[in-house]
Structure formats: structure tokens, C-alpha cells
Amino acid sequence: xxxxxxxxxxxxxxxxxxxxxxxxxxxxxxxxxxxxxxxxxxxxxxxxxxxxxxxxxxxxxxxxxxxxxxxxxxxxxxxxxxxxxxxxxxxxxxxxxxxxxxxxxxxxxxxxxxxxxxxxxxxxxxxxxxxxxxxxxxxxxxxxxx
Length: 146
Prior knowledge:
About 0% of the residues lie in helices and about 55% in strands. With about 150 residues, it is mostly beta strands.
């Protein structure tokens, strides 16, 4: 499953040598989507692995980038308890050109992300006591073209 997302590079971290044979480098994207006239912001921590760790070097924090990535998950059992971990493994990063994703403010590529409405954080929390979280249901996020 190949996915794409466009957003602002918020942070990039140093490469971590996890084991003798494995290294990773994490970075964070700010994703903004406009739903019914409200802008919702989401922050996604992604990772680059092995030989891909250096591809983020040519970008600066604040740059708009388009990231191609895969969702990777692992399952392991320890002391009789099953645990899961999910990673967003980036494999290509390129400068975002205006309108490349069809969403000027960045965000999810809707053609690739057809798994339903994602969870969002809203910068303008007004009705929920100042809490910065909002998770629109598919019914309230009417983005149909008709």
C-alpha cells in the first residue's frame, strides 16, 4: 500500500543506530485539511530507514514537502501479552509544488487515503472547553462534489 501526504516539515531528528544492522531517522509533518470551512491540523511522525535516512537532508524545517510512504506494522509477544507497533515508513520525499496534491494547504492525498475520515486537531477550539481535539464523523465532513 503506497500512500502520499503533503505537509510542512516541522522537525527532523538525527539518525539513530538501533542495532548493528538497522538505522532509522524520524521527522514530523504538519498536515492541514479544510473541512466545511474549518482548518484542522494533524501532526504525523514518520521515519526513514537504512539507506533512505539521508534523503531528508536537502529539506529545511518549514519547507512544504510531499512524502510517499508505506504503513508497516509489527506484532510481538512478551510475557504472554501481545503488542503491536505501527510505523509510517517514508521512501520518497520531494518538494511540494503548488496544487500538486489538489489541496493547496497540504494534507492527505484523497485518492490514496480512502480509509475514512482521519482524526484531526483543531487550532480554533471553541465549543469543547478549549480542548484541541476534534474527530469529525463521516456524516459531518460532507466533502461530496454534489
